Amino acid sequence: MASGINKTKIQSLSGSSSDDLADFLQKISAWCADNNIQFDNYGEGKLIADFESKIAGLLGFPAARFMPSGVLAQLIALKIWCDESGSNHFGMHPTSHLELHEEQAYSHLYNLRATLLGPQDSPLLAKHLENIDQNMAVLLTELPIREAGGQLPSWHQLKALVAQCKKQGMRAHLDGARLWETQPFYGKDYNEICEGFDSVYVSFYKGIGALPGAMLLGSVEFIEQAKRWQRRAGGTIQTLAPQVASAAMLFDTRIASMAGFCSRAKSLATVMQSIPFVKCVPREPQINMMHVVLPFSVDCAEAARDQIVLQDGLRLFGRAIKIGEKESYFELTVGDNLLGISDNQVAEVFERFMVIGQQWAAIHE
After folding, report:
1. What is the pLDDT of residues 320-337, one digit of tens each?
2. What domains sit in the chain, N to C, each tagged with a CATH number?
3. Potential cystine with 24: which of 18, 56, 179, 349 (Cβ 3.0-4.6 Å)?
4. What is the pTM of this model?
């Protein structure tokens, strides 16, 4: 096996998160000691206030609130905007996290009603807002569309979408779970990307690789309302210091690395697609993420993945996702975990993975 991979412990190919909990917590502890970091108290304190101010300035908003999860942050944003308008109706993409992964909490907990807009395999566009209920309070837009392989609208399309929201009297909320990854594609500052949105949510455990944590941004009045809803929803935790510290510790380095990650994703996709029967969605990645489509089932993909772990100590992906009876895909995000492993080394391992997967398919399918 190639020298860039340490076989003494399992190494994940995707992302930037640490697989070694003890080592990661020790790094956070050392950073806190070096910077004289103290606990916050129910979201109040210098550490959290300084970090909120930093992100608010970067994204061009007057105020921000750190929250324990993005689920909490986004439901709060929708609730505030719907209450403001007197309508419980909002719009979102059919592959939104709120629709696919949250058990319709927006309906069961907040009595909100969703209309799904646009095709599943491409981003939301201004034309998708035509002929909709004019009482729609807010549009939730995800940048990028994760379930479509990290696809983004063009700069013109993005600004046209926000303008259409305003034209139709709707608020615009940005699901920026992977907002940090979009800057190299647009070549704009983050505040320019966010311009026109009334509220934004960002994550710190995905692209940044920190402990779980999110931030909601908007006007001062909006964030004051968000704080009340955070408490009502049981999201005002006694301290979020470890989560905030991990994000503050990693943020500048990871943001500075995004352009390199995105460039690497393009070169890696080219190499991966030189392997027979492998394709990436999109064919040329727009961010540092792609979907790798495989010509065999989830069971075969995960059996081959586990065999590569045993042979090489390298986990190619966490889980495979079903497309059809004999086709699946996995998500690959280029981050720190790929440092020290060349595209050719990845291709060599992946070629063996494909052989194993096809052998499993021949036997079991």
Report:
1. 999 988 999 999 999 999
2. 11-19+258-364 (3.90.1150.10), 40-238 (3.40.640.10)
3. 18
4. 0.95
